[in-house]
Structure formats: C-alpha cells, structure tokens
Amino acid sequence: MKIRKLTAVGILMVVLGAIFLYRTELVTFYMNTFLNPNREASIDSSERNEYYTGANYFYVQSTNNFTPTSKQDLKNIYYTVLDSGLDDFTFYCDDNYKDCLKDIKDLSNDQITLSHINNFVHPFNSFKNIETEFDSLGKIVIHIEHTYSDDDIARINRKVDEILTTITTTDTQEKIKAVHDYLIHSTRYDSERTDHNIVTYESDNAIGPLFQGYGICGGYTDAMAIFLTRFGLPNIKVASENHIWNLVQLNQQWYHLDVTWDDPITTSGIDTIEYSFFLIDASKLDEIDVDQHQHDFDPTVYEEATI
Known about the structure:
Layout lengths: L1 H34 L35 H14 L3 E5 L7 H9 L2 H8 L8 E8 L4 E8 L3 H15 L7 H15 L1 E2 L1 H6 L10 H6 L1 E2 L1 H14 L4 E5 L4 E7 L2 E5 L20 E3 L1 H7 L19
Helix pairs in contact: 6-9
C-alpha cells in the first residue's frame, strides 16, 4: 500500500512538474509573441554616422549579433552601438542566457569597463553619459548622451580643416608631428582644473585645446585622435588609472603618442616642447615611465598597446 501511495505521489509530482513547465513555456511564448513581438535587433548601415569604424580589437569586436549569450557579447554590443554613433538602441537577451540581466546590471554599473569601451570609438561617438534600462522580459535599452553636440562637431571640423591647410608635408609621421607641435604650442595645461577642481575651460575634450588654449590629458588626446582619424590612421585611446593618451597604428605597428607629457609645465613658465612620448613602442614607454607609473594600463584591455 505504501509503495502504491509513493508511486502515486511520484506520478502526481511528475504531472505537476510537466504542467508547470508547460505553463512556463506558454507564459514565455505569450510574452515573447505578444508583449515583445519583434525581438530581432539590428543596426542598418544607414543608421551609422560617418565616424563609424567597424574596427575589431582584442578587447571588443564589431558585431551584427544583438542577441547576447555571454558577457563578451554584451561588451561587443555596447561597443558597436557607440561606434555607430546612435543615441538609443534596444535589444533582447537570448532566452537561454540565464545570467543576462545580472550581467547587464553589472556592466551598466561598471563605469570603468564602459569607459574602456568608450576609448575604442571616435571621440565624436564617445559618450558623456550612458544609461541602461532593462526589464524582467529581457528587454534592454541603451541611452547615450554624446560628449560632442552636432554644433561642436561642425565647429571642430572647421578648425581641423583650417589647421590642415598649414601642413604641407605628405609624410605621415611629419603630419602627426605637425599636429603634435601645434597642440603643444597653442595649449597650456589646465592645472587649475586638475589641482584645484576649478572648471573654467572645456579642457577635458577637444574644444579646450582647439579653441580655448587649455587642456588636460582628455582634451589633448581627443584633439589628436580627431586628426589621426583624418589622416586615415587606425587609433584608439589608452587609459591608466589617472591618465589617457593616444595609440596609433603606422605600417602595421602600434605606437604610443602622449601629447600631454610632451607639453611639460616649467617653473619658468616658458613654453617648451618635448618628443619623449612621440610615437614610441611599448618597451620604450615602459623604460621612460618606470618611475612615474602614469602609463600603467591594463594589458588585458589594451592588448594592442603591448605589441
């Protein structure tokens, strides 16, 4: 009798479990079919702006897969959305990606990782602020406030055109040197901002060096990145804990370029120009930065910078 009861209970549990799974599948089907009828996300080429690169790096890769199944997929989606210059983008978790919402929450709150991803896109596509919304159905919406407005971009491009008319050399390295020298001669380091948190200029972006005569590392680096892209050179920004500089590819080799550190602050106040950080490889950077540790970047993020 006990065996029969146990068997009956076992059968009942199996039946209830099957009913539960069936109802769960029905609920999932209903939500996906009626509440989210179109879960296919994509970015058409017409949606991308002119600063899109589609470049692939060790850390992030351009993707057409907007149904993530892993953390790397999520990073690739964020990178591709930023690289495309979009203001908003909606995508959905894969039904089999059980940790998707947890991973999205972690990534959206991880400003360090998001800032790293930001360094792989053109400055005009970089974010000033990025927010992520998500719901229990796996719908994810990214909202992006860009660093530069359309008016800023137009103004900067006119200035870049003006500066480029003064550069007559056809040699790529000499072109980079001309921009390097221009930025240093026309810009003072904004120590009031870095030392006393007094914000007078937009020195943290390209507007400071190009129009106001003041910059900090973010401003020097953005300005140089804009020129490097104009020269048709692959380039990214590399960040340490408290500094940022350029990395540019010439003849299939990556070189570090730090305009900020080539524009030293002197006790005499006399403008000087240096070339210690002008197109140097990783080993040279390690050699000259051994005491300062201002260029201690994460090699798992900026693997190109180690080559």
